[in-house]
Amino acid sequence: MQASEIRELTDAEVRARVAELEEERFRLRFRAATETLEDPLRLRLLRKDVARMKTVLREREREAAGAEDASAAAKARGSSPRKSRTTRAAATRATTSRAASARKAATRKSSARKTKSTRAGGAGER
């Protein structure tokens, strides 16, 4: 089923169709585990049809809610807005560089302690 055909259906019809396709997919998966299917490609087609229908439903929800309301709804659901790839990469670099700086500082401190103790003639002699 094409997206243009799905958009012509009402929300209730799309939800009913999604339920039918998911049930059919469940039965096919069960049969595939016990016997060879005549048309194994049907499983893939069902999965993609369900995804298309859910996408159309989600588009309709977002249109109804508006751009600002959609982000508020995402926060209410408990999900956070996704960070862009560059933002995640920058955050990772910052965290990594902070950790590296902390390791270097710890190494400098420990080597400074060793130097003081060797100058004094060892740990026991002072």
Give the structure's gist in a few sentences.
This protein is 80% helix and 0% strand. With 126 residues, it is mainly alpha-helical.
Question: Explain this structure to me?
Answer:
The chain has 2 domains: 3-82, Helix Hairpins, CATH 1.10.287; 87-121. The mean pLDDT is 80. The protein has helices at residues 3-7, 11-34, 41-77, 85-119. The protein is built from 4 helices and no strands. Helix 2 crosses helix 3. The longest helix has 37 residues, at 41-77. The chain is mainly α.
Secondary-structure map:
Layout: H1 3-7, H2 11-34, H3 41-77, H4 85-119
Which descriptors would you attach to this protein?
4 helices, mainly alpha, Helix Hairpins, 80% helix, 126 residues
Under CATH, the topology of the largest domain can be stated as Helix Hairpins
Low-confidence stretches: none
Q: How many domains, in number, for the residues?
A: 2
CATH architectural label of the largest domain: Orthogonal Bundle
- Number of DSSP helical runs: 4
Reading the helices and strands in chain order gives HHHH
User: Beta-strand percentage?
Assistant: under 5%
CATH C-level class of the largest domain is Mainly Alpha
Count the strands?
Answer: 0
Give average pLDDT, whole number. Answer: 80
Distance between the termini: 86 Å
Shape: elongated
Give a short account of the largest sheet.
Answer: none
Q: What percent of residues adopt helix (DSSP H or I)? A: over 70%
Radius of gyration: 30 Å
